[in-house]
Write a structure and sequence with these properties.
The chain is α/β, with parallel strands linked by helices. The protein has 3 domains: 109 residues, 3-Layer(aba) Sandwich (Cobalt-precorrin-4 Transmethylase, domain 1); 102 residues, Tetrapyrrole methylase, C-terminal domain (Methyltransferase, Cobalt-precorrin-4 Transmethylase, Domain 2, 2-Layer Sandwich), CATH 3.30.950; 47 residues. The protein is built from 10 helices and 10 strands. The chain has a 5-stranded parallel sheet with strand order 3-2-4-1-5, sandwiched between helices. The protein has a 5-stranded mixed sheet with strand order 6-7-10-8-9, with helices on one face. Strand 2, helix 2 and strand 3 form a beta-alpha-beta unit. The mean pLDDT is 93.
Length: 275
């Protein structure tokens, strides 16, 4: 049986490319990558000369057949992302599923992961956490995800781009309140690695640049339903995000444990105050 290898690559510091990763990348018949301009130099720097093909958000589905052809022919294939562990907020999920549907195997060379590094150095609880990746960019889906994040009692790990980081922190502040602890990291493992700690009300990230990992403290565990102030805050996030009154009420009911009639009355009060 042939193997599809998921190979973790450095998130910044080239010294984090593991010896076993080098062995696998040098032995496979094909390396699937997001961008040959990123992976090509990495492999050349390691003295590896192999065949590359692009597997990204746009090409993953059509490339499945080409990868299966290599595996069917007795060759091994490696999948890498531009940085970190493939398949985590990066292409790979479809390819893994397709290979697992055959007699071939899937294995991995573990290694760098920005999400795990940020979590472990954050100082926030690590016993239970959830990885949310990138939030939806707009609309009802973003509103519902923010509401769910605000209510989650586990530590939450998110990714964000530089041009959206300030808006996302603002939205998290509106959804979670100003007192929630947060850690914002960028340039992890690189020369200018930066870790900012504080609360959503006090965090200052400076001029946005680079890719960010946000680690957010979980909501306080509670045995009673959310307070009126919590419900109003959640409703504001939903309504400001473009949700209709009906959708906002339904979303907040599902995440706060409050009765629909009570949430509806608070929504009416909010709209009356805003008019």
């Amino acid at each position: 049986m042939s193997t599809l290898w998921l190979v973790a690559t450095p998130i910044g510091n080239l010294g984090d490319l593991a010896p076993r990763a080098l062995d696998v990348l040098g032995a496979v018949d094909l390396v699937c990558c997001e961008d040959t301009r990123r992976t090509g130099p990495l492999l050349r720097n390691a003295g590896i000369d192999t065949r590359l093909t692009v597997v990204n958000d746009h090409t993953e589905r059509p490339q499945v057949r080409a990868v299966l052809d290599v595996l069917d022919g007795g060759g091994d294939v490696a999948l890498v992302s531009d940085a970190g562990t493939p398949g985590i907020s990066d292409p790979g999920e479809r390819l893994v599923s397709a290979v697992l549907a055959t007699e071939h195997t899937v294995s991995a060379v573990p290694g760098p992961s920005a999400a795990i590094m940020a979590l472990t150095i954050s100082g926030l609880p690590t016993a239970r956490f959830v990885f949310e990746g990138f939030l939806p960019r707009k609309g009802r889906e973003r509103t519902e995800r923010l509401t769910a994040v605000a209510a989650d009692t586990r530590t939450v790990v998110l990714y964000e781009a530089p041009h959206r980081i300030e808006r996302t922190l603002d939205d998290l502040r509106a959804a979670c309140g100003s007192d929630r602890s947060v850690v914002v990291t960028r340039e992890l493992t690189k020369l200018h690695e930066e870790v900012r700690r504080g609360t959503l009300g006090t965090i200052d990230i400076g001029e946005p640049r680079g890719e960010y990992v946000i680690v957010l403290d979980g909501a306080p565990a509670a045995n009673s339903p959310a307070s009126d102030d919590d419900v109003r805050a959640a409703l504001r996030v939903a309504l400001d995000g473009g949700a209709s009154s009906r959708d906002a009420v339904a979303s907040v009911v599902s995440t706060t444990g409050r009765a629909k009639r009570e949430v509806y009355d608070l929504a009416i009060d909010l709209q009356r105050d805003a008019s």
